[in-house]
Amino acid sequence: MKQQTSRRRFLGAMVAAAGGITLPAMIARGANPDTALSECPSTDHFWYRLQPAGRYIDSQRGNKAFAYADGMLFLSKDNGRTWPYRLAFSDAQRITFSHILKNGNIVFATGAQLYLSTDNLKSYRQITVKALDGADYLPHRPQNPACPGWYFHTLPGTVSWDVNGREMMVWGNYCNVEGGATPVNIYYSTDSGRTVKIAYAFGQNPFFSDDGSAGGGKGGKLLGNPDNPVLARHIHTVAYNPAENAFYACTGDIDRGAGLECHWLRGTYDTKRDKWQWKVLVSVDSNSRYKSGGINFAGGKCYWISDANALRPWNEGDYDRGIFCCDPADIANPRKHTLLFNPQVEAGSMIIQDGVMLAAHCGPASPMNTGFIISTDMGKTWAQYDLKEFGKRCPTRFHAKNGDGWFRMDLRSCWITRAEVLFMKPKPGIRSHTAKSKS
């Protein structure tokens, strides 16, 4: 398959990177939402702009946006032009997750704590998650108080769907990298965040016990469901297929000796009984198309992108990676998959909306600085771009387009450390170079 890479010229200003999961000290060259498209940098396929300085815009939905700054939360109803709603919140810089629901409720999290605002940030309350048996699910007492765990942090920007006429929020935590050792769970809410419960709890991985370190390690307190033999390091994606009324989840990362950590699961939810049924479809090691993320369902097909790696010797040889699609019934059968495009690099984030497929390189593994993959015709043609002016970055947490037509995403340094927020708007009627699909 012929592939073409387009590289943007250097724009002159490097963006300052921020450490940890806290608010960046400076967001350089930001543009406000009213900036003319002609003044925004662009490629052949999209315009792009950093968020304006002053706030970290953590999530968006329609015309609404949720942001934070030092000690303060903000809500906009005009795509970030004004921020009339605000609330003092001392741990604002520790926010690791947020989501705006259809009815306007906002769910947000800091480490091991989950919160809800139902009144446009006039107030908030803490949410106590319910365990599989209905009891209160309380976070573990961390060995290191500075590392309580990333209980609710997730990689996709889409975490809720219309399920049988009701919005349902379902997401899994990407954890055990920064923030402290964390049990791996899939969470859900059927009442706009008022109640949050565990849909699935992975087992106790001895390689990510609470030893006080930022990523967890061996020899500490075991975390997770002691009755579940299925182990994972973290969850890459949870997605919903309305055609089947079913959810799919994929996890990472590698067989460390305690068991495989890469799985695809299929789950169905019984509304009347408030019960889940899950089945593990595939369990593999890390050099596999199933070590993946960015699961999307469109036109009756399942689409995903793979970040396969870790052959022995480390990262040498061929990799089973790329952007794939298949019928949902054929997910476990690689012979029925179609390879749409192979960027020849690890890539784990993707969103599909209005015929546009937007994905990104994993920065540390890519020859590009900030690599993007785009198709504006549902996978018939493709292009790649390097937004080199941002330095080594991993785009993730792709949010659906806002009311002005801009996708929103995090730019992460070292794969997972929060740095900047980027907005991207596809150009209409643009086709990439021609690339034939390959099975």
What does this molecule look like?
By secondary structure, the protein is mostly beta strands. The chain has one domain (5-434): Methylamine Dehydrogenase, Chain H. It has strands spanning 5-7, 46-50, 56-61, 64-69, 72-76, 85-88, 95-100, 106-110, 113-117, 125-127, 160-163, 166-172, 185-189, 197-201, 234-241, 246-252, 262-270, 275-284, 292-298, 301-306, 323-326, 338-341, 349-353, 356-360, 371-375, 381-386, 394-399, 407-413, 417-426, 433-434. It is globular, with a radius of gyration of 20 Å. The model is unreliable at 1-28 and 434-439 (pLDDT under 50).
In brief:
Helix content is 0%, strand content 39%.
Give the helices and strands, then pairings.
Blueprint: E1 5-7, E2 46-50, E3 56-61, E4 64-69, E5 72-76, E6 85-88, E7 95-100, E8 106-110, E9 113-117, E10 125-127, E11 160-163, E12 166-172, E13 185-189, E14 197-201, E15 234-241, E16 246-252, E17 262-270, E18 275-284, E19 292-298, E20 301-306, E21 323-326, E22 338-341, E23 349-353, E24 356-360, E25 371-375, E26 381-386, E27 394-399, E28 407-413, E29 417-426, E30 433-434
Parallel strand pairs: 1-26
Antiparallel strand pairs: 2-29, 3-4, 4-5, 5-6, 7-8, 8-9, 9-10, 11-12, 12-13, 13-14, 15-16, 16-17, 17-18, 19-20, 20-21, 21-22, 23-24, 24-25, 25-26, 26-30, 27-28, 28-29
